[in-house]
Structure formats: structure tokens, C-alpha cells
Write a structure and sequence with these properties.
The protein has two domains: 118 residues, Nucleoside Triphosphate Pyrophosphohydrolase; 126 residues, Alpha-Beta Complex (Nucleoside Triphosphate Pyrophosphohydrolase). The strands form three sheets. Strands 1, 2, 3, 4, 5, 6 and 7 form a seven-stranded mixed beta sheet that branches. Helix content is 21%, strand content 35%. 28% of the residues are buried. The structure holds zinc ion. Zinc ion binds next to loops.
Length: 280
């Protein structure tokens, strides 16, 4: 089956046990965190088996990701210093973000995180001995102290705070470009995600919120977040900004929003969802 005809939502079955030789396969090639794209393709697709065979690039490891319409799919960890082969370009995942459907973006994000997990867990963090594949799931194991190392996912909260027709948007201090977004931050050890929402809002802008409502989540592989999106209602307090994190924050009427994220990110979806509700 051609990649263009595949619906990843239905056709992708994740797996960890590498199958034997097959006549067909797909390969997502990653070098130094960047994704290989085929120059002649208008939309990104993975390489097929023939393209992979002829690709002049040193392969460090292939990680089986699962099966797409019966065809095995691999994340290929390529030499991080590899030059771009003729006819191909290395792109950052961020630069592909706006040109990919969400399932394809998630799949490439998965490939990238598995390659990074493998690279970061060559040695045991406790005793320093080389790790080895555990063989039965997506983990590496230390033969010396029997510890297992899985790909790590960092839960983060992202929250749209609203006060009737006004949305609280902030310009992150470290962001590239002049744009405003919802508030976000990592969940800390020992914290529930709801506690993280209250703490982050208080830390970043000094206000209290109430009536948290879970919205949806988004895998955000920069490098390994899982964004958990919430709506929240303003309760009390004046805006006091945490300077290191927030350059600027304010209430904006929904008819008059500053430059903000598109619905390709969960921040954009939260904003759109709230406006849709206001207008309903
Ligand atoms: Zn060890």
C-alpha cells in the first residue's frame, strides 16, 4: 500500500518485537534530531525499503515502531554527523509541524523520542555499565543491577484562563518571535495535574483560578512532553508576572486577540474551543 493511501489513525498498530525479513518496509530516518525528507515529495513520507537500501548514510540502529497496513515501520537512528544525501533534506520536527496531519506528526515524534531514548540510555545511570535491550518491551536493561530504562515522558499542563469574554494570554520570555499563548509548565514530582495548574498560574501571573475543566492532550516531542490541556476560570488576584518566564501578559477580548498559536497546537485549540463556546 502506498503511504498516501494510509490512514494512520486506523492502519498503525504499535509494536516492539521486530519482525523477520519482509519485502516491504517504511523508514523514518533521524540524524541529530532532524528528520529526513524526500525533496520530490510534496508531503512528508517515510522512505520505502528500496530508498533505504540505496541511501548513503551510516545507520547506527533501526527501532521497530509497529506495523502500518501490514508493513513494518522503523525509526532509523542515523549518524548524527551525516551529510544530506542528494535528493533529501534534513528538517527539524518543528518545521514540519504545520505541514503534517496530526497522526503523522505524532508518529515522527514517537520515532524521534525512541531514537533519543536509545541514545541517552547506552549506559546505566546507577552503575555506569553498558545497557542492553531487554528483549520483551521498549526498555533497556542494566545486566549488572537489573534496572530498566524506558523512554521518558514529561507531563506538562497547559491552561487557558478566561474571565467571561476576556482571555489571559502571555508572551513567554524565551519565545522566538512576538506571540502570545496560554500558560504552561511541567508537572512536578508528587503533584497532581490539577495542583500543577493552580501552582503554574499562581507562579507565572499571580492569580487564582477555579473550575478547572480538562480539555484534551497532545504529545509534544520537544523533547518529550505530554501536554494536558485545561480550561480555567479566573477567580481572584491582580496580574503579577514572573519575569524570568513571562515577558508580558494581559487580558484580551476574544474579538481582539494578539498573534497567537494556530490550532495545530493544543494552545491554539484551547483558544478556538473557548471562542466557539462564547459564540454558541
Ligand atoms: Zn547498572
Amino acid at each position: 500500500m502506498d503511504w498516501e493511501l494510509i490512514d494512520l489513525r486506523i492502519d498503525f498498530l504499535p509494536g516492539v518485537n521486530t519482525p523477520g525479513e519482509t519485502e516491504r518496509s517504511f523508514h523514518i530516518v533521524i540524524s541529530d534530531g532532524e528528520i529526513l525528507s524526500i525533496d520530490t515529495e510534496p508531503r512528508w513520507r517515510p522512505l520505502n525499503q528500496d530508498e533505504m537500501r540505496w541511501l548513503e548514510i551510516e545507520v547506527i540502529e533501526q527501532h521497530y515502531l509497529g506495523d502500518v497496513a501490514g508493513i513494518p515501520l522503523f525509526a532509523v537512528e542515523a549518524d548524527p554527523d551525516a551529510d544530506e544525501p542528494e535528493g533529501y533534506t534534513f528538517d527539524t520536527l518543528r518545521s514540519l509541524l504545520s505541514n503534517l496531519e496530526e497522526p503523522a506528526f505524532n508518529l515522527i515524534g514517537k520515532a524521534k523520542q525512541i531514537v533519543e531514548w536509545h541514545r541517552d540510555h547506552q549506559y546505566c545511570g546507577q552503575c555506569g555499565k553498558p545497557t542492553e535491550p531487554s528483549g520483551f518491551d521498549r526498555s533497556r536493561k542494566c545486566p549488572e543491577c537489573n534496572r530498566y530504562f524506558y523512554p521518558r515522558i514529561a507531563p506538562s499542563i497547559i491552561v487557558l484562563v478566561a474571565r467571561d469574554q476576556d482571555l489571559l494570554l502571555a508572551r513567554p520570555a524565551r519565545a522566538r518571535g512576538h506571540f502570545f499563548s496560554t500558560l504552561a509548565g511541567f508537572v512536578e514530582p508528587g503533584e497532581t495535574i490539577e495542583e500543577a495548574v493552580h501552582r503554574e498560574v499562581m507562579e507565572e501571573v499571580g492569580i487564582r483560578v477555579r473550575n478547572l475543566e480538562y480539555f484534551s492532550s497532545q504529545a509534544w516531542p520537544f523533547p518529550n512532553s505530554l501536554m494536558l490541556g485545561f480550561h480555567a476560570e479566573y477567580e481572584s488576584g491582580e496580574l503579577i508576572l514572573q519575569e524570568e518566564e513571562i515577558a508580558e501578559a494581559d487580558w484580551f477580548h476574544y474579538h481582539n486577540l494578539p498573534n497567537h498559536p494556530s490550532p495545530v497546537s493544543i494552545a491554539g485549540r484551547l483558544i478556538h474551543d473557548y471562542i466557539r463556546r462564547l459564540e454558541a
